[in-house]
Amino acid sequence: MRIPAVVMRGGTSKGVFFHERDLPENVELRDQFLLAAMGSPDPFRRQVDGLGGAISTTSKIAIIGDGTRFGVDVTYEFGQVGIDQPIVDRRGNCGNISSAVGPFAVDEGLVTPTDPITIVTFLNLNTNKVIVAHVPTRNGKFNPIGDSVLPGVPGTGASIQLDFLSPAGAVTGKLLPTGNVVDHLTVPGLGTIPVSLVDAANPLVFVRWEDVGLRGLEMPAGVDADEVLLERLESIRAHASVLAGIADDVDSATSHTPSVPKLALVGAPRDYRASNGVDITEPSTNLRAAMMSMGRMHNSYPLSGAIATTVAANLPGTLVHDVATEADQAFIIGHPAGLLPMLADIEKDPSGWLVKSVSGFRTSRRLMEGHVLVPDQRLSV
User: Fold this and answer.
1) Distance separating the N- and C-terminal Cα atoms of the chain
2) For residues 112 and 158, is the Cβ–Cβ distance under 8 A?
């Protein structure tokens, strides 16, 4: 099977983009193709027989379709492809890959460009939420050149503003999946710890660094090398998945829904050294946080996770709100690769908290265009 595809970098992630019209209509056949295209499952976690990059941030796909029937420019379905498991997990969205949807739509002629900024409105089919991308364009094409620096990405690029409209309840249908700002989760081998579950753009379970024996200075390489710690964090995430009603039991949470909820470690601002060697000072951030993604610590901080984190910081009583400092304008998350500013429009109404929108800024680039080849013998229904 030979299908046109484009490889895009979106924020700190990379994924293979397909037109919905080009993929098999049969869902089982489609997933077989996507897994083979990415080189999954690979028991050696290298994806050497496909386009995947052997880590969760580079094992992603996006499927773009016509959005006319939904009143938007395009539709977008995200898939987190398992590396050593035959999974295409669609239970949540990826904010980083979302940042490449607008540029893809412009360059593929799916929207009419309006230089110097083209507004692209798209519906994420995973969450049924609308996202508005402000895409820099020049001569009718996406213009990736700019001076915006995104921690975790070398060089500079054009800033793309993404507005996530009404992101609450993206997966569970509720801003607070359990109805509580804090729950006490009992995890075998760890005991009972406080957690906060918040669902905005993606559901996250928040845990304080200190409650899992960490200092908040740890970096991805050290965390990923500690198998005991990784198992403990996955156990917390899996139990939180059951508590949130996403998975029926902890085993299926790990085997079938490894991408949601994601787990975020949070704490008060502190001095630490980022992965690029830059010293981050306590006053420069409102929160020190790191996120787990598919069993490993993310090298920076996913945009969809930053949305949930920013919302949680605005909800009195959550662990995030209790440890974060008050933001003047942008809420700044200190993460392993540096600083991430976020903007939020949140207000309290008689029915509860109303999350109107949360905005973040990314860069993107079109990396490759061509065809993905998968032997027909690898596909069967």
Assistant:
1) 14
2) no
Q: Are 62 and 74 in contact (CB under 8 A)?
A: no
**Nearest Cα residue to 218 out of 145, 163, 270:** 270
Residue 96: what pLDDT? 96
DSSP string, 85-100: S--EE-SS--HHHHTT
- List domains and CATH numbers for the chain: 2-159+364-378 (3.10.310.10), 183-354 (3.10.310.10)
Q: What DSSP letter does each residue of 321-333 carry, written as one string? A: HHHSPPPSSSEEE
SS3 content of the chain, % helix, strand, coil (to 5): 25, 35, 40
pLDDT digits (tens, 9 = 90+) for 267-323: 999 999 999 999 999 999 999 999 999 999 999 999 999 999 999 999 999 999 999
DSSP state, 216? S
Q: Is the pTM of the predicted complex or chain greater than 0.90? A: yes
